[in-house]
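Example 3.
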Amino acid sequence: MTQPILTLKDVVVEFPGLRGLKGLMAPPEQRHVQAVAGISLDVQPGETVAIVGESGSGKTTLARAINGLVPLAGGEVWFDGMPLHERPDWHAVRRRVAMMFQDPSGSLSPRKTVRDLVLEPFAIHGIKLDDPGAKAADLLATAGLGPDFLARYPHQLSGGQARRVGVARALALDPAMVLADEPTAGLDVSIQGEILNLLNRIKAQHGLTTVIITHNLNILRHVADRVAVMYLGRIVELGEVEQILSTPAHPYTRALMAANPEPDPTARHERITLKGETPALNARPSGCEFHPRCPVARPECAERAPLLGPTPGAGQVSCHFPIHKDEMNTA
Amino acid sequence: MKPFRRTLAGRLLADPQAAIAMLIIAALVLAAVFADLVAPYDYSAMNLADRFARPSADYWLGTDNLGRDTFSRLLQGGRIALYVALTAVSVSALIGLALGMIAGYGPRWLDNVLLFSFDTLRAYPTIILALALAALLPRGLSTVIIVVVITSFSEYGRVVRTQTLSLKHAEFILAERAMGAGFGRIVFHHLLPNVLGPFFILAAMNLPVVITIEAGMSFLGIGVPPGTPSWGATLKDGFDHIRTTPWIIIAGGLPLILVTLGFTFLGEALRDQLDPKLRRGR
Amino acid sequence: MTDTLTIERLSVRYDTDKGPLEALRDVSMNVPAGQIVGVVGESGCGKSTLISALLHLLPENGRVSHGAIRLEGDNIVGAPPRRLRDLRGRDMSVVFQDPMTSLNPVLSIGRQMRDIQYRDGGSRTEKDRRSAEMLGRVGLPDPDGKLSFYPHELSGGMRQRVAIAMAAMMQPKLLIADEPTTALDATLEVQIIELLQELQRELGCTILFISHHLGVIAELCERVVVMYAGETVEEGPVADVFLNPAHPYTRKLIECDPGRLKQRAETLPAIAGSLPDLTDRPKGCIFRDRCDFATDACADRPDRYFVDDTHWAACHHTDEVRK
Amino acid sequence: MLHYTLQRAALAVAIVFVAISALYMVMITLPGDPTSVLLGPRATPEIRAEFRAQMGLDDPVLMQLAQFWGRVLSGDLGTDYYRDRPVADAVMGALPHTVALVVGAIVWSATLGILLGAFSADNRNTWLDRVSGVLSVGFIAAPSFVVALYALLFFAVTLGWFPTIGAGEPGDLGSRLYHLALPSFAIGLAWVGYVARIVRASMLEALGENYIRTARAFGLPRRKVIYSYALRVAILPAVQVLGVGIGGMLSSAVFAEIVFSRPGIGSLIYDSVSGRNYPLVMGAMLVAIGFFVTCALVADLINAALDPRHRKLS
């Protein structure tokens, strides 16, 4: 087995909770909330891992922690043998780890032209180009945009076009890994396909390692090799994409899959309705943190927290009573 | 090249309010530059035979208690007003810009310290502070400028800070950091251009405020040295003889009102043009 | 069967800096009483303009330039202000997309629910009782206590329940739901859809459900209207339209949904090209530039072509599309 | 809310403390020799030395500052050497006049400003809106002391409708208000303009919000939507602006008090400055800044009380 290119070990990210007078008076554990609460994950070179979760699951925070946009409160991050948790030279690291952001046009500096935007990585890293104009046009072409876009400003781009500029820019320095935060957010389904095809093509051409953050389950099968499902800052299930989609072992994963109706009026939907909403980060439930919403919770779930362990399949799940394949069929 | 009517100046001229404003400001600048050529009399020449003269063909706006020509003095006053306003606004705006960006982009503790000092400086009512400092500092335009800078840079600082703070967490700044951009590049290439719009609007809106402060301080006798024909000093002369020379008050107040009106109109028009949110239509 | 809502060739025009923009053109649809009808379309298709036109809440630069909106047979286009106010909230009510901004932040839930009952008699306590009852019905725990809450004290899902309670409380003839689940997480979306289904069964109201999510429409609605670039391109029973679309756009749209594909696809389908400029609509069929079936015939704007009594599409090549 | 109040109050106290301390330090370090100012040029060196010792002027600066605050906290603001009276008495005697003036100005600006702003927003983009817009800008642009001078010249001197001098008969409310009308209007006029602009802008913003669309979609009467739903939100920034604006009003009050020959903090400071009467200047500054910061705090708390989102902080 090859050496993983990215290794996360018990990664913890904290945000300040209560501030001011209240914060001073509150017990220490309430002064901080854990947005990411101990995540371990290996990503192999050339692999695509999708991190799936709803709002508040900590998936975006995790991606930002990997390339140092938010500080780690604990744990280790190793990228290609470099310890990113020990004050690395971020300037150098970020040259090799590119990031794509959620808001396609909001992540483009509003007073720069597209040409400046795609050349920005070269400017940042002090790379002299013989013919910057040609390079910019080249990069845009890889992302499927014509040279007539070079002179435009971000507000003159549609969501899909802005997304393409983001892709062009992420590829500019030939990175080893790309962190893509919600690559389909804000895009209509008719455009979504084009962007995903673009990503897939580039991944194949450059042998890129990719971490995709998404809440869009529909795209998983077509972009990811493995999937990690997050809930309240922890991974609750991890496995091969087909296995997760066809035989989810965690009740939450299963509810998530079921909550995603297909555009087929004849399909019989077996619904699993979860009770209530995701709890706040400063009010984590006892035991298994999913138990108040879990349709199959038993009394001990409230007392004992499950650990991430092997599933009947090849994946990992943190549940005392994971769903077995045969149960799926009878349900 | 964009056609003229689509440039900022072109769009401003198309707005009647802004056009009037620019006319007034142009008149002020011309008067200030050519005051000595245009003025019918030497602004400080006393003509005791013609004291308290009503407005006439000889003295368009009458004379004061020393027989000095009001019109000539007002022309000279424009020069003083413009000088003080431009100097004080540029100094305080630049200080405010620097501190505001430091507060907005710097570490949290520094932000708290700077914000607290902005709050503290705002607690001094301008004219009252001016009075207090007048007891300590020599009378003159530099004192006026110092008072204005002390009381107004915090306002720029506050606006720039808010703007910077909201941009600091914008995704495009995160994206820059994620690409490895350093502090200088983020601040000068990406924050600054987006902060300058509101900053210039504020500066334009502050010019008339500073002109008013200078006139006010001179009115109170703590601004320009005695004998200097600031608009405020002229008004004070009028006020001292309000029942005999009402024309000085009327004539002395008008340029002040016109100029502040002009700058305020211009500031508003600039804001409408530069701030796309406020532009009409979607 | 009577129709609660009929829209006939409705056009809406905005005056913009770049000249008139026809946001809706010849939009037609029928919403039968007691059904849930879905309106599906991507951004820029005119869904929100349609809602504003229905409620007569178009912005100042917009107006209905043509056509009719019939509520139980009465044309309400150009109705006098008094009649409009009676329409809003009593005959028609609406649940908006974003629960975070659609409730007034400085007024309590109870006050807002009391205010919309201004037409009804009864004391304050009675109105509050009705509000609490409705809140209980949409599944808010401790409904009486919630009346004194302010919107920011409730989660997004709870706020959307409050919004639904407000819309359903007046027992409207037509309830319009404008992407009511788009701002919510998937597991909450399920809860809200089930709630809407339940209310529809209990109250028997007619629901116009606007969404861009094909799966949700497929599950919730009986009929569906497909919109593209301000025009209605297809209308019919959900099963017919989704399984056997008659308009090339509908067909493409369904193909594009990656949730439909059970096998990993190397290349995902997409619709090439982009929306036409609505200030300068192309002559002929609005979808022509992006359509695989386009022929010279498409230079003329297609009228509605009825596949059967209840299913039509605005296309010259309906038969080929359905092959 | 309690936490919020305490936090803001603590901040306000800190601001007053730092602002006055800074001024005090500047006062005692900057000028050459305060004794020559306070005792006059003819005092002998012996008298000066005695005075310095008595006043603690030879102590380290921080020590003097500590002593100053010690005296202030015990209610002693020093002595007015010119008239030989406690500074506290002089300042406290003048304060009510200035407060009345500022309150009068707030009444003018809040009522007229909110009315004008709401009216403008309600009739947006009509000629009425444009006229009221030009008026508001005109009000803002007119310097308050010019307004005061013009008002004095026209309404008091020429037309004789209002008194020219003084604050009115003590104890006679009617006479007091009569004397207050012109000066408080002169101060408030600019703020009528500010408030009108702010209310109009925030009204328009509020009217574009989704919750207003909700209210209209439920058929609430237009008047109710505008004046009860939108205005309620739109007033919040106006309260904030007026709170902070009291600093500006205090500055304007100096002119109004001088132009209309009224007693008050402004004219007190003005008179003391020409005589370099430092203790009186410090005392009056302390009271003026204290008053302003308190007002800003109150505005902040009113805002929090009106806006439930604010209370979340507590």
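Chain B is about 70% helix and 0% strand. Confidence is low (pLDDT under 50) at residues 277-282 of chain B.
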